[in-house]
Amino acid sequence: MNAPADVITDAVGTSRPRLEGPEKVSGRARYAADHPMHDLAFGVVVTSPVARGRIRDIDASAVLTMPGVLGVLDHRNAPRLDPQASGFFGPDGSMQLLQSDSIPHAGRAVALVVAQTPHEAQAAADALAVTCDAHPHDTTFTADHPAGRAALTVLGEDANVGDVDAELASSPVVVDERYFTPEEHCSAMEPHAATAWWDGGRLQAFDSNQGAFDVARTLASLFSLELDQVRVRSEHVGGGFGSKGLLGPQLILATMGSMAFGRPVRVTLTRRQVFLMIGMRPATEQRVRLGADTDGSLRAIDHQAAFEISPLAEWVENCPEGSKVLYATRAIRTRITAVPLDLTPPGPMRGPGLTPGSFALESAMDELAERLGIDPLELRLRNEPAVGPVSGLPYGSRNLAACLREGARRFGWHSRDPRPRRRREGHLLVGTGLAATAFGSSAFPSTASITAETDGSYTVRIAASDIGTGSRTALVAIAAEALRVGTERIRIRIADSDLGPAWSASGSRGTPSWAWAINEAATRLREQPHDPTRPVTVTVDTAELFTGRFVREVHAYSAIFAEVTVDPATGEVRTRRLLGMFAIGRVVNPLLARSQVIGGMIMGLGMALHEEGVRDPVSGRQVNADFAGYHIPAHADVPDIEADFVPEYEPDEPSGVKGAGEIGTVGTAAAIANAVWHATGLRHRVLPIRLDRVVEEMA
Amino acid sequence: MNDDGRSDISLRVNDVTHGLNVDNRTTLLDALRDALDLTGSKKGCDRGQCGACTVLLDGRRVVSCLTLAVAAEGTEITTVEGLAPDGELRPLQRAFIQLDGFQCGYCTSGQLCSAVGMLAEHAAGWPSAATVDVSADASAQELDAVEVRERMSGNLCRCGAYPSIVRAVLETADQQAVTR
Ligand code: FES
Ligand code: FES
To answer: Which regions span the lipid bilayer (chain B) (predicted)?
Structure first.
């Protein structure tokens, strides 16, 4: 590990509990719906009863006489929004709420009822008479849907390396399979909530989001306000996982309410509304073809992915991303097709693209190992690339092989009988499987201020977010190291858009991006003459340093190992062991980083075995829009999980760190699916691996 | 109960008695959060499916979103705010911090209240679905990870803090066993 020679503190690399721990275990931490506020009114969202159509009438007359009701907003009287306001990839129709009578998908907000109390608002919302004309809708996704078209290439051009068809034709061993993943939902435990009010011509909000500055900027453009007229704060956020990365409907509607009724308005989505209104991971269908020589050398990777999208907003579920960087091969081809349907616009969910893509690629690699008669671990090691197989760029720190070898040693992989359906314990079948992962890492511009106070302490200000990621705690350590002082001398303020532009907690780019700005500010502060009589502040925006050019392939890596038991009578799959070895650069706080990657692995476990948004083609609606129907892992589903890190330092990244937020999720589903094959001898190419699917395959 | 569908009730929460006039349909969760500003209890689903709203009624855990405020009259209600009444965190809370038994913290109030109730249930000899020998002497039953996972399964955590939560609960149970 070659950390910079002049590092003198142990701030980075030491486990420390979360700074906000005492507040969170005593119920004192206030989330977006928890702030008491004078004169607060409550808005309840009314959603569309049809999956596509037109609002014929909303008759509010009866509702307006109900106790406590202040009013009803719909497309006829709601404040106008700028249709050009952008989401992730250009203008985003999902933000254009209450702007027209058209209904583009089930669960679309059609009205906001505002009343003095939450109960009065809910009662009025239940009573609101909405009549619609239903139009035919199409919510049934297939890869060969006639509406399918090429996806945007903003996240990377399709790969066209070598002659894939010729290589496949001359490969002695070929895998050619299709893989399916359903709609999945981030399901953060905190439903989206916002409180908005006006304070001397300035719009103020407490909101549940992953990036207060980005949300404020989008909010300003949507309502045609100047950026300095908007302030958004999100001190404590109850999880996001992608679903709170954008300006959400809760804040748009709360803002409308505060404008219309001249008082603070709080909008909290119900759990059901979170399922119906917030972008999900789209369903995917993928075809993966691998060709290899008998010694296991890959000759070709062909990864073709299709996913569902909404015409309201662009989205790219970039499934083949991992196929471009994981393995050496002579030929690589990737294609991505977007299929527009009448759906809530899909959005990011932990490891977007890579996660379903990894399930397909790493399952196919396991199938290839089986057909070659080569150990799946060995197959991956044999195809370690020297340079990026598509980009041709050299790799930054790349310790996938170390993750695989060390993980295998700890897991006891080498004593594994490669043949499936050999291990039994009583009536249970037992199997093990693995998967490898790469997850791109980089740093984006942010603004940080550091003040050297007169008492020798420092105050760091940056509009970072802590959505459970531990960033508050990690950034204090990074600042302490950069300033060469102990962590006890650092105070930090985050999650306030007034602190300036900052990358959000997304794309596993949060910590590297914020660390960059903090490091630059600290360096410049240390160059300032010291003045003990007055505080000295330095502010840096790394946008001035950002080139947008990447000269190396910089990725985090992991190897995930799983052991499952399968009950052949009931089809029940249980994950008995899960081990992840990670190469995420320097680990700022091992206690917190371990929690984060373990949490990611548990989400991958849910993807493998439980999670599935079920859509009824007749109504066009998700029928399991609650936790009784949409199953996320519970305590009893989760074994003790081992996760650890190989020593690493990434010289191209600030503080030597890579992101850790998503990589835990990416490879876990394939590792579990491969273990289920090893236990049963049967492949599951459709997620989740439900009881009925196991029983059917066994029959 | 009055004719207007409202009731004057008194709720005893964390050793303090509060007089309230509530709509009879008000859940205990809403009464705590909206009327008493005890926002530590969270609303993850409002349907009894997530456990984020778990509180203790006379020491027994309930999901407060499925409990009517009027029905909680006459009980001793303990919320997460009452777990450390004098500001001194109890061992379970300290274990959650030290072992990182939460990430976003949104499920945490529920996990903590649930764990307090669960440890009491176990100490009282109540079996769970994971208990192998239900005839065994209560005090001799050992609490292990499988038992804790089973008994805590009503409390969802999307951040996936489960392994650390189980460790924190077991460590606390060990300490209690030593001091008992
Ligand atoms: S809010 Fe009560 S169980 Fe979810
Ligand atoms: S800590 Fe975030 S849901 Fe449990």
So the answer is: none
CB half-sphere exposure, B104, CA atoms < 13 A: 33
Q: Report the DSSP beta bridge partners of residue A397.
A: none
AA letter at A472: R
Sole residue written with tokens 């980009």? A391
State in words which class domain B85-179 has: mainly alpha
ipTM of the complex: 0.97
Phi first, then psi, for residue A498 (nearest 5°) are -65, -10
Q: What token pair was written down for B105?
A: 């913290």
Nearest to A266 by CA among A103, A31, A58: A31
d(CA A306, CA A339): 7
Query: And the tokens for A132?
Result: 């619609």
Q: Distance between CA atoms of A420 and A411, rounded to whole angstroms? A: 18
Distance, in Å, from the CA atom of A326 to the CA atom of A328, rounded to the nearest integer, reads 7
Window 157-216 of A: residues touching B by CB (8 A cutoff) are: 186-191
Say how many C-beta atoms besides its own lie within 10 A of residue A133's C-beta.
12
**pLDDT one-digit tens code per residue, A341-394:** 999 999 999 999 999 999 999 999 999 999 999 999 999 999 999 999 999 999
Contact across the interface for A189 and B159, Cβ inside 8 Å? yes
* Per-residue pLDDT, A318: 97
Q: Model-level pTM?
A: 0.97
Residue in A191, A237, A636 closest to B149 by CB: A636
CA-to-CA distance for A301 and A289, rounded, in angstroms? 6
Q: Count CB pairs under 8 A between chains A and B.
A: 173
Q: Is any Cβ of chain B less than 8 angstroms from the Cβ of A629?
A: no
What's the CATH number of domain A21-29+443-545, 3.40.720.10, 3.90.180.10, 3.40.50.300, 3.30.365.10? 3.30.365.10
Answer yes or no: do A628 and B47 touch at CB < 8 A: yes
